[in-house]
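Practice record 12: protein with adenosine-5'-triphosphate.
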Amino acid sequence: MEDGLALHHIGVRFGGLTALEDVSLRVCPGEVVGVIGPNGAGKTTLFNVVCGFVTPQTGSLSLDGRPLRPRPHRLTRLGIARTLQGTGLFAGLTVLENVMAGATHTARAGLLPALLGLPRSDRDERRLREHALTVLDELGIATHAGAAPDTLPFAVRQRVGLARALAARPRLLLLDEPAGGLGAEDVDALADLIRGLPHRAADPCAVLLVEHHMDLVMAVCDRIVVLDFGRVVAAGPPEAVREDPAVVDAYLGATVEAERSEAERRHEQ
Ligand SMILES: Nc1ncnc2c1ncn2[C@@H]1O[C@H](COP(=O)(O)OP(=O)(O)OP(=O)(O)O)[C@@H](O)[C@H]1O
């Protein structure tokens, strides 16, 4: 039995442009797997393939060894949840309601009983509310349960987005640039949180992390896949990937170069 998510030889073209070519990767239960690469390397396209926003022209996906054809609205039923860049929270709902919205598919009663206010939906709602509060508590933001998201600092809103995804009790969480817009201290706290996700006592979940932030990826991932021009140029544990000449060339080299130019620019000022 092949547990977890696997991408097999995925290829995506947009007109004449090859966004992904022959990309294979696997995320097993208990793992945090990172996808990094320079701008335009194909990270977002890969994320969109797993979410079902982009259908690859070649290759296939599987979940626990069974063929997977992801559709964005069916992901949570497959045990997959995602966060997107930014927080994407509903402004008209409280923090708690936003998190409950992440788990509505687990409610046994359908929408109609809920609209009619029938007793079974009351029970469902109580269950959802309790679970949402537990997740908010786990993420250290339960005190904000009654707040409107747009009154909260970005780092808290970002956690609410994460809580909403976790409320769906996923076995696999897809994170798209979760460090975007966070300060160094918040990135450290996020790293601790991500590292713990596969080891949660209730609802442990593996993580696929697509991220620019090199320090975060190096700190939390068991394995890293490096893309460049849509191809996998390196894959392995962080310490091996960090040393890989292809990575230094494709990604770290570019970063070091950019940092050096920035330092020189500051020095000249
Ligand atoms: N919908 C689209 N139509 C046409 N080209 C696209 C589309 N989406 C992505 N591309 C192109 O595919 C390539 C890969 O883009 P992608 O956004 O996946 O890279 P990325 O690694 O996420 O980059 P970044 O770090 O800048 O977000 C790029 O050349 C991009 O311009």
